[in-house]
Design a protein that fits this description.
Layout lengths: L7 H10 L11 E12 L2 E8 L11 E2 L2 E3 L7 H13 L7 E5 L3 E2 L5 E10 L14 E6 H5 L4 E8 L2 E10 L2 E4 H16 L6
Parallel strand pairs: 1-7
Antiparallel strand pairs: 1-2, 1-4, 2-3, 2-8, 5-7, 6-7, 9-10, 10-11
Length: 197
């Protein structure tokens, strides 16, 4: 059982006991993301990126840093760390990896994504790549732990309807795989399992 504030030590302890499922799915491309915690002045927070509104399904979305696996990546974790460095300028050896969540498929594309959870030291001089990142979002984790920030239902994205997990923070809506990853992390912390009871 974790406290309402949910400390770094409590999250690490939950992840240390967790055994994520990594089962590749035929026909889907492997990819990884980093779910980065950050000790901001507002308290322990998550860092997400808002993508520029470029053509394609992923443009203008809010996501964690990450992307598709490349031939030179030795494993899924290296993919997540490489992509994080490329997108927001965080050096690989400055990320403290806490654990992982089960592999997830995307709703709107053909990726099979492994989320890794870790932390970035505070303060940090982020260097977002403007081609991939319009702005950074630093969201207090206490907000995401509050059930009032979460809902599940239909979401209209560029004229397409999806049934999705949804998180609201100020004027932003987090949906799709990113919201599902957050929900699985929150559920794991609250119940000791990723799946909803």
């Amino acid at each position: 059982m974790v406290s309402k504030a949910c400390s770094e030590a409590e999250i690490k302890a939950v992840l240390a006991k967790h055994q994520p499922r990594h089962i590749p799915q035929s026909g889907r491309k492997p990819a990884s993301v980093l779910v980065p915690f950050y000790k901001a002045p507002e308290g322990l927070s998550l860092i997400l990126t808002k993508r520029p509104d470029y053509p394609g399904i992923h443009g203008d979305q809010i996501s964690f840093p990450g992307g598709g696996r490349e031939e030179d990546d030795k494993d899924d974790l290296e993919t997540a760390l490489r992509e994080t460095e490329e997108e927001i300028g965080v050096k690989k050896d400055e990320v403290d990896v806490w654990g992982a969540l089960s592999t997830q498929r995307t709703l709107s594309s053909s990726f099979w994504i492994t989320p890794f959870v870790g932390s970035i030291p505070y303060p940090y001089n982020f260097k977002p790549d403007s081609r991939e990142v319009e702005r950074l979002l630093i969201i207090p984790f206490s907000h995401l732990l509050n059930s009032a920030s979460y809902s599940y239902g239909p979401f209209n994205w560029k004229g397409m309807m999806f049934e999705s997990d949804l998180y609201r923070y100020e004027n932003d809506i987090i949906w799709g795989l990113t919201a599902r990853i957050i929900n699985r992390l929150v559920t794991l912390i609250k119940t000791g399992r990723e799946d909803r009871p």
